[in-house]
């Protein structure tokens, strides 16, 4: 593994034909190594005690054909996404918390296990990824596209991603859409669809997700009743800022004391006041 560490880096990565990967690594504090060594590197993490800025140089992808893990998160790197097509062995690209923009299609290439593109400026319709890509979803375990500018509809279904454990699409600019089909994701533990313009009902099939520990559906336009949820492993639940009605399921109320965090605020829910404390009401049922 190679770590690139230094104190401060500002605007040093011009994306021109005359700029080489070795120069890029040298300027972020990596000790000089032969370019022939790059082809054997399997893990690369680039970070500074400041932020890397500018763009990733041309040829960065093909310089690391055996790279499996790439972490360039928490910087201020710009550019039209990151071309990983030359990284034939890549399984874990983390480019979160940067300034990348453009479409996300290019990230769905290799047999990836982890995709983290969160907190960038990506735009476009991610539904095209499912329709047009030959990406093998069965390898994917972790997918985070949150806090971008993605629009259109999100994924209609992800049933091919049967090993997916973490799904976060929160805080994008999706058009209004009904709840995606996720009932055939038995491994799912974390689901965050907050502020994704969801409308209609929460499907009863969500109870099939028996491993679910975190469910965040806040800041949407969901209506009707809260379905029976599988509360056995549920530790975090946020349904606030929707248009949910009816009674909160009794098993759910009875399980609140076992949860780490829950919020039902700003809905139109009915519940038995004797089943919750005043402190709980003020913290998690305001406006309901």
From TrEMBL:
Chain segments annotated as coiled-coil in the UniProt record: none
UniProt entry keywords in alphabetical sequence: Cell membrane, Glycoprotein, Leucine-rich repeat, Membrane, Receptor, Repeat, Transmembrane, Transmembrane helix
Topological category with respect to the lipid bilayer: Single-pass membrane protein; Single-pass type I membrane protein
Stored Gene3D superfamilies: Ribonuclease Inhibitor (3.80.10.10)
Subcellular location: Cell membrane; Endomembrane system; Membrane
UniProt-listed InterPro entries: Leu-rich_rpt (IPR001611), Leu-rich_rpt_4 (IPR025875), LRR_dom_sf (IPR032675)
Keyword Metal-binding included in the entry's annotation: no
Any Gene Ontology CC annotation: plasma membrane
Pfam families, alphabetized: LRR_1, LRR_4
Family: Belongs to the RLP family.
Protein name: Uncharacterized protein
The species this protein was found in: Kingdonia uniflora
């Amino acid at each position: 593994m190679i770590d690139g560490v230094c104190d401060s880096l500002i605007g040093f990565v011009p994306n021109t034909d005359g700029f080489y990967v070795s120069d890029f690594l040298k300027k972020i504090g990596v000790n000089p190594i032969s370019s022939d060594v790059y082809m054997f590197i399997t893990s690369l993490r680039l970070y500074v005690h400041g932020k890397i800025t500018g763009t990733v140089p041309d040829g960065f992808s093909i310089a690391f054909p055996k790279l499996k893990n790439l972490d360039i998160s928490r910087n201020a790197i710009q550019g039209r996404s990151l071309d990983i097509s030359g990284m034939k062995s890549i399984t874990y690209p983390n480019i979160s918390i940067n300034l990348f923009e453009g479409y996300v299609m290019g990230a769905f290439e290799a047999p990836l296990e982890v995709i983290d593109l969160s907190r960038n400026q990506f735009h476009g319709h991610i539904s095209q990824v499912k329709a047009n890509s030959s990406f093998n979803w069965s390898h994917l375990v972790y997918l985070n596209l949150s806090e971008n500018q993605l629009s259109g509809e999100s994924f209609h279904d992800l049933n091919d991603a049967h090993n997916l454990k973490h799904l976060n699409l929160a805080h994008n600019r999706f058009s209004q859409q009904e709840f995606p089909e996720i009932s055939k994701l038995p491994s799912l533990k974390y689901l965050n669809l907050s502020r994704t313009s969801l409308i209609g009902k929460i499907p009863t099939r969500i109870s099939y997700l028996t491993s679910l520990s975190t469910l965040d559906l806040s800041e949407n336009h969901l209506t009707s009743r809260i379905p029976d949820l599988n509360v056995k492993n549920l530790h975090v639940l946020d349904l606030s800022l929707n248009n949910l009605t009816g009674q909160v399921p009794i098993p759910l109320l009875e399980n609140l004391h076992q949860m780490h965090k829950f919020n039902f605020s700003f809905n139109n829910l009915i519940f038995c006041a004797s089943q919750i404390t005043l402190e709980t009401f003020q913290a998690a049922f305001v406006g309901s």
